[in-house]
Amino acid sequence: MKSATPPLPVLVIGGYLGAGKTTLLNHLLRNADGRRLAVLVNDFGDIEIDAALISANAPGRSDGVISLAGGCLCCSFGDDLVGTLRQLALRQPALDMALIELSGVALPASVVRTAKLALGVASAGTLVLADTAALPRQAADPYVGETVRQQLQQADWVLLNKPDLCSAQQIETSQNWLRAELPKVHFVCASVESLPIELVLGWAEARRETASGEVSGLFTRLSEESQSQSPNSSSLRKESGHVANSVFESLSLPLPSGCDLRALGQALADPDSGVLRAKGLLLAVQGRTQLLQVAAGRWQISEGDWDAPTRIVLIGLRGFAERLAQQPWFSDLLMPRTDSR
Amino acid sequence: MRTPAIPPHTTVFEARQILSFGSTAASRTAATHVAVRDGRILGVGPLGDLSGWGPHTLDRRFADQILIPGLVEGHSHLMAGTLWRYVYCGYFDSTDPRGKSWPGLKSLDAVVAALATLATPATPASSTAACTGQGPIVGWGFDPIYFGAQRCSRADLDRVSTDRPVGVLHASGHILNVNSAALQAAGLLRTGIDHPAIPLGADGIPTGEMKGPEGMMPLLEHVGLSRSFLSGDETGIRDFARLCVRAGVTTATDLAATLGDEEVQTLARITEEADYPVRIVSFLRLIGIKPVDAVQRALQLRAQSSERMRLGRIKVVADGSIQGFSARLRWPGYFNGQPNGLWYTAPEAMKEVYTLGLKAGVQIHTHTNGDEATELVLDCMEQALASSPRADHRYTLQHCQLADEAQYRRMKALGMGVNLFANHHYYWGDQHFETTVGPERAARMNACRWALDHGVPMAIHSDAPITPLGPLFTAWCAIHRRTASGRTLGPEQRIGAVEALRAITLGAAYSLKLDHEIGSIECGKRADFCVLNEDPTQIDAEALKDLQPWGTVQGGRVFEAAAITAA
Questions:
Q1: Is A80 part of the contact surface with chain B (CB cutoff 8 Å)?
Q2: Which domains does chain A have, with CATH numbers?
Q3: Is beta strand A275-282 parallel, antiparallel or unpaired with respect to B31-37?
Q4: How is residue B76 annotated by DSSP?
Q5: What is the ipTM of this complex?
Q6: pLDDT tens track for A290-305
Q7: Residue-range domains of chain B with CATH
Q8: CB within 8 Å: B218 and A103
């Protein structure tokens, strides 16, 4: 039985000038790895897509759309964000995710509100970038300080970018500033190039239906992982369930059957867990498969007819896996029960 | 045998009075004759003096009328011409480009009835209406403030049509009312919408009142009002010119255009027609384009300029509008406590475009409504000038409604000009006094007196279609500073009639760096005149707002307003 196409996830990417939004988008497009991404900008002049990413098959723009390699595209929405998103949601073959790049002075909340008016899309949250070294100064600027702070307040999570251009002192100052200004915000201090794609895009494969109806995705790739590995990868190298690059690591664990997904979701969403993103599939004994997703302090459970191993994959900063095992709820929720069936 | 060269033809126009607003002795005294050759002014003065230019034809058609310099509208949009193809829904009477007077609509029922005439196939549509067939029905100029507490709902517009989308633009440009069919087309005729700009009715479904850009945007395409359509197609460009002739305008701006190649070709072709009556000065808007590319594009465009199509200037928008609460204000902010408005351009981009523009000799005008936005522009200019000094740059603050006196001193020090939105006193003055900025700051809005006293080059404008095109009315606004309810805002900022008339001629010309060509009736300048039945410096100052020009002379060609009828 074919299920209805799930909504197109829409991620809003904001941040002041120079924060690295365009670099991030080019990085995601370069490493899309089969995902069909749509990048939306107000006008084409607002973004510079790497020439190498532009599709050789369909160069140039038609109807406000530039075709990119791998089935990705870039479109300008001008005045009609809602209409553009609706069309993207209906596009065949289906897109996996839409990413809206905002101008440097735009406020994300209003764009998210507007995007939600489009049928067939669902918000995947707001990511706001900041130039780590420049942040305290920009936030104090008499003209744009208020705008910069509002952008951060409206973020689901913040990427403090370009730490490689900072001294340790600057990094600490900016992180302290952010924690003081926005105690509840989730942030990561890492360069765009070191970000695992999964962290930003989640596992956007959920929309696509393969012939067997199976959700292709990170699970499948991990289990069939090829041996080719790039040294400084933006995707995590696989090593028996635990992969890492210099900044992040991911952990893949089996989920005990009968696992309390709600309690697990709550625990993982807590900032103290150290988990930036998580995705778990619990094959039901009866009824449908449950999918747990955790990102930026929120968790949600949905149901579907997927057929994939009962596992959970977690991403966090390097070192989080060790600390995770020491969490009080870890054994209750994640260790297999000897008396389970 | 060599053919003798045909001597150029000279016409001498005779008028009851010629007010030249020039600076030479000859032009300061009232003259009665002006000689024109090749579309330019040979001289103005007594017929005896002018006869020295040689054989001429004496044209006495204006013998009982007054000639003043052709009026210059320094801030308008071609869209003013485009809107007239839709249904006029304003409260006050208004005249369309063809001279047809459209009565003001005094009730919501009247608005519905006016729109409904287009929904009935049997009814002959007005020649200016484009809403025929099955397409959307569009109205504009609507302002329910005159209908008391009653707001327009989608049920009201469903009475116009239940199957065709109906959209009614408010006069402010900030609100759009739509019917159920339009909401349906946009996917918004449903419950479950949670958006501050989209009020819901008791049934949980949008009322059809879409507020601000956020509320309006999802609907614009569905009522046929996309951005590209509004920017000025062929009909719009022609209708805009007709409005100009009626208003006595011989040079006007299109202050925020995209100016792609096709758009430029269309504008070039139309303005070059032998009977196109206006010079259009079109600015490239800095949006969706990087500063360095904008400056480069401006230089390319400048090279494509022609006599009646002047390109090569850039327009930057710093903030929104005061009445829309999207302007950026300094402390203490909005009078009614609304949060501060939005930045439309980042300071870095502003500084960069000024720096590059000054270096390349490209003129840049910047929209600022709030005083914080004005302050930012002044700061950016100061920094840009430090690295790219340029004499006589004439960078101009557009609208600049809330500047204080210190800011006028800074403008002077930086060599900046100002183009003030005098029409606001009439159309939104009461709102500013009561709600947006409060009594004290309302008194200093659009401070023409400060501009003149501090030697800041000044012009005044309509920003048509935001307010109707009509520089004589704008002059009246600057002279009296009276709101629609009769209140005077800041009497100390009032200016005299001659000062106001200069602002709508030479002042605006100066802001466009065209003061060597237009703005006064002097030897060498373009033969651009505004033809009036009365002397605007002699009539009762109140009568200025109702003074309708007979028409214009542009480049020596005569255009009578009454002769422009349905084509």
A1: yes
A2: 8-199 (3.40.50.300), 210-334 (3.30.1220)
A3: unpaired
A4: B
A5: 0.84
A6: 888 888 778 888 877 7
A7: 79-227 (3.10.310.70), 231-512+520-554 (3.20.20.140)
A8: no
